[in-house]
């Protein structure tokens, strides 16, 4: 009996997965899945079903890389099976973007180089998490910090527009930083910056860790230009622990989100976990997005 039940479950997941792949290829009405696995896992990610991957700024775009090193990266990106669509780890902790130690000229110069290289590499999204760079002193005026940060981000957005790149402000968690630790607070910043090249990354992993309701996705609405996901306990890839992401996916469906959902988690056994993650999350997305939206 148990064997029959397991077989039925596996069949259902496979059926939903096939439906998901067919639907997305024809109409692209479901969010498109990517994974932050880097170029080293390009072939494995592609074989698993991914067509887009994420890399990091330090590895492929950083101003610390020589022109020769950057050009070598361009060749690797061009040869990759998956498109490198996004990069994370935008600013190192040594380049402050919030608080009393911000050197705006330094920040803008650094940003100019990174986003110029992003355009050359075909990278469309730069995730602005950068926990160390945006942390502020414990006794610092939070109102001033937010006001100054909005002012800086407006300038970052202008640079992003120049290079046809979108900066995505990520909600982090309190174990990583003390500044902007909820989707609600990140949405507040994005709303004030008010620029098409500066949007919100709804990180579902961080929302779960902070106990934030899926309703905040609905409140943020069209500010959301990207989403990231991983399992709550160990930041494992979807399917490893079996987390249910459907309440958050339903919120994305409710706001008619059709953008990208990138898996960003800790990978222990890539050969097993990357294919599992694609199938597992595809099944949950297909289940949710096949349902009629309830207002």
Structure description:
- With 295 residues, the chain is α/β, with parallel strands linked by helices.
- It has a single domain, classed as Divalent-metal-dependent TIM barrel enzymes (TIM Barrel), CATH 3.20.20.150.
- Helices cover 49% and strands 14% of the residues.
- It is built from 12 helices and 8 strands.
- α11 (246-254) links the parallel β7 and β8.
What is the compact description of this entry?
This protein has helices at residues 2-26, 42-48, 57-60, 67-79, 104-121, 131-134, 142-162, 183-193, 204-209, 215-220, 246-254, 270-289; strands at 32-35, 52-56, 83-88, 125-128, 166-170, 198-203, 224-229, 260-263. The protein has 295 residues and is an alpha/beta fold. Strands 1-2-3-4-5-6-7-8 form an eight-stranded parallel β-barrel, surrounded by five helices.
Helix content: 40-55%
Strand order, sheet with most strands: 1-2-3-4-5-6-7-8
End-to-end Cα distance, whole Å, is 39 Å
Structural class: alpha/beta
Number of domains: 1
Query: What would CATH call the architecture?
Result: Alpha-Beta Barrel
Percentage of residues in strands: 5-15%
User: How does the major sheet shape up?
Assistant: 8 strands, parallel, barrel
- How many H/I helices? 12
CATH superfamily membership? Divalent-metal-dependent TIM barrel enzymes
CATH topology-level fold name: TIM Barrel
Uncertain regions: pLDDT < 50 for 5+ in a row? 1-13, 15-26
């Amino acid at each position: 009996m148990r064997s029959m039940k397991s077989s039925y479950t596996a069949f259902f997941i496979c059926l939903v997965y096939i439906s998901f792949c067919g639907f997305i290829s024809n109409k692209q009405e479901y969010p498109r899945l990517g994974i932050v696995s880097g170029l080293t896992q390009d072939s494995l990610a592609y074989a698993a079903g991914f067509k887009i991957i994420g890399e990091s700024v330090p590895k492929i775009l950083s101003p610390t890389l020589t022109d020769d090193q950057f050009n070598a990266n361009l060749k690797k990106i061009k040869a990759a099976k998956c498109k490198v669509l996004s990069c994370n780890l935008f600013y190192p902790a040594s380049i402050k973007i919030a608080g009393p130690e911000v050197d705006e000229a330094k920040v803008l110069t650094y940003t100019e180089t990174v986003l110029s290289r992003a355009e050359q590499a075909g990278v469309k999204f730069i995730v602005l998490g950068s926990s160390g760079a945006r942390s502020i002193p414990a006794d610092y005026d939070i109102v001033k910090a937010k006001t100054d940060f909005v002012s800086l981000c407006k300038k970052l957005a202008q640079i992003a527009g120049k290079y046809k790149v979108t900066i995505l402000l990520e909600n982090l968690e309190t174990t990583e930083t003390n500044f902007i630790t909820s989707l609600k607070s990140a949405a507040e910043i994005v709303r004030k910056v008010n620029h098409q090249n500066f949007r919100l990354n709804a990180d579902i992993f961080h929302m779960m860790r902070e106990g934030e309701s899926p309703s905040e996705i609905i409140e943020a609405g069209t500010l959301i230009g990207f989403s990231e996901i991983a399992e709550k306990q160990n930041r494992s890839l979807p399917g490893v622990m079996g987390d249910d992401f459907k309440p958050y996916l339903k919120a994305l469906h409710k706001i008619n989100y059709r953008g990208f959902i990138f898996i960003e988690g800790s990978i222990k056994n890539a050969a097993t976990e990357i294919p599992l993650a694609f199938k597992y999350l595809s099944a949950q997305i297909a289940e949710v997005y096949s349902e009629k939206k309830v207002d």
